[in-house]
Amino acid sequence: MTKLRIMLADDHETVREGLKLLVNAQDDMEVVGEAGDGVEAVALAQKLLPDVLVMDISMPKLNGLKATEKLKEVCPQVRVLTLSRHADDGYVRELFGAGACGYVLKQSASGELIHAIRAVASGGKYIDPKLAAKVVDTYGGRAGASRDEARGGLSDRESEVLRLIAVGHSNKEIAARLSLSVKTIEVHKANAMRKLNLTSRIELVRFAMFQGWLQDN
Question: What is the pTM of this model?
């Protein structure tokens, strides 16, 4: 199995060591590099081309926001996941505007970070559940995600099924609307949820709101 290549950027070595132990304990991930400041993070990411760069906001030389902006200019394929103690929706807006793909709070459970890494690596966007409602309320469900980025590798049919589920249609109603069997709808739903690393209807609705999907229906 090909492992996800993860890079860590945080100016506290003890934090990086803890994150490294957590990430390397996963069967599908490995830490391939570490950086202690923003300048080093950008330079090393260009060299290593990790799948996901987990980056703190407060770092010397170049903060996480500026480092994210710079990295998106020189190495847009590297997906940046912000790890921060700041539970402020203003930070979320700035980081997503700079090109970050996810935002997780340091004070959240360790499993939240792992979940976020997988979601971001699969092509989706991710926001810590503790911040999701606030971001949706403040920005009307739009936080800078592009149409392609929002889909996370979904097929047109999978995307259509998820959008209909998010606005309240049952599997039976969707099947009738799309002239498909209920079983086929269930398969599309399961595949889409797996691709986006979503595990419940609540998470699906939150994701749909965050991506602006509900405004399209």
Answer: 0.63
